[in-house]
Request: fold
Amino acid sequence: MTDVIFNNTRFDPDLTPFHEHAKQMAKAFGYTAALDFDKNLAQLVRLRVAQVNQCSYCLILHSKTAREVGIEPAKIDNLASYWESELYSEQEKVALSYCDRLTQGTDPHFHEIHEQAKCFFSEKEIAELAAIVINMNLWTRLKLAQGATPSYAE
Reply:
C-alpha cells in the first residue's frame, strides 16, 4: 500500500505557539496517552469525532490506529451509524452518543446523556471521555484550518 502524506494547504501550524499547546493536550489525552478509560473505546470515540467533523487527517490516522489496536473491522466500518447496530455494546453506544452530543455542543439535553454515562463509567472515566472528545475537537479543527490535505507519497 502506498504511504499517505499530508500537505498544509492553508498555513503552517507552527507559526504560533498554539500547535505546541495542542501537542501537550495530545500527550495527555491522545491515542498514546495512558488513561483509565478503555483504550479501544477511546479509539472509537476519537474516530467518531473525526467522522463528525469530517477531518481527512484525523480520519486516516484514527482509522489506521483503530485497526492497529485490534478493533474489529466491522466496528470501524459501521461507526458512522453505530446507533443502528448490534455490533456495539450499550456502554459503547452511550460513550459514542456522549461524543456526538459534546462535539455538536448545542444539545440542551446534554445532561441526559451524562446521566446515562454514569451508569457505565466512573466520574474519572467520564472526565477522561470529555477530555478525549475535547482534545479531538481541537485537533480536527486545527487540521481543517491548516488544510491538512492527504495525498500519496511519490
Helices lie at 18-29, 39-53, 56-68, 73-78, 90-104, 110-118, 123-146. The domain at 4-152 is CATH 1.20.1290.10 (AhpD-like).
